[in-house]
Each structure stands twice: as C-alpha cells, then as structure tokens.
Design a protein that fits this description.
Elements lengths: L27 H18 L2 E2 L1 H7 L8 H14 L3 E8 L9 E7 L1 H7 L1
Antiparallel strand pairs: 1-3, 2-3
Helix pairs in contact: 1-4
Length: 115
C-alpha cells in the first residue's frame, strides 16, 4: 500500500517529510573511510566538538554497531594524535536526553597537517 500526499488548500502538493533516521553503514571499514575525513577536518580547526556534532553537521552514517564504533573512532583519532580530550558537555543528540558526553579538540599536529 502506498501513501498518498493530500494537496494543500491552495492546490500545491507538499514535499514528502524528510526522515530523521540516519543511514547505517554496511561494514566498519567502509564507514571509517567515509567518516574519517570529516573528523580530521574538524580537528584541523582546533575547535572543541562532540562526536555527534560532527556527525550531524556532515550528515555522516551510523556505523554497523553504533554502541561500540563511535567510541572506537574517537580512540583511533586520539591514538593517531589528531585530537585530545577537552572536557565534558551535554549532548544535543535528540535521543540522548542531554546526557553528558566527552568533548574533543584538535591538536597542534592536526592543525599543522591541514596547512
């Protein structure tokens, strides 16, 4: 059964609502290859950010296992010297109810690599 869109009173047809669901990557390696550049670019700015802020700004997909892979990504970036911990903040992720999350900041090495 297909859903039909009812025209507005002026006769125009409204656009279909955009889903707020984030797409999900098929496998870990493909996901890392897609999201890595966005986090490297964020680190190069030197600004403080949360993991979700960068994912949301860049419309990045969820990993195959979101509970484990987001944290693993940030650990890899930290181990590679691109980011460091900066503190804590309340997340703006809609499903997290303003929970406390780690904030990250790009390192001087990340800023030099971008130059």
């Amino acid at each position: 059964m297909t859903a039909t869109v009812q025209p507005a009173l002026d006769g125009s047809v409204p656009t279909a609502p955009v889903s707020t669901a984030r797409r999900q990557a098929e496998d870990y390696e493909t996901w890392i290859a897609e999201v890595w550049p966005a986090y490297i670019a964020a680190a190069a700015t030197g600004r403080t950010f949360t993991t979700y802020e960068i994912a949301d700004e860049n419309n990045l997909p969820n990993p195959p296992s979101p509970q484990a892979h987001w944290g693993r990504l940030m650990t890899l970036l930290k181990d590679e010297g691109y980011i460091r911990t900066a503190g804590w903040a309340c997340t703006n992720r809609p499903t997290a109810h303003h929970s406390g999350v780690r904030t990250w900041k790009g390192t001087a090495a990340a800023r030099r690599a971008a130059a």
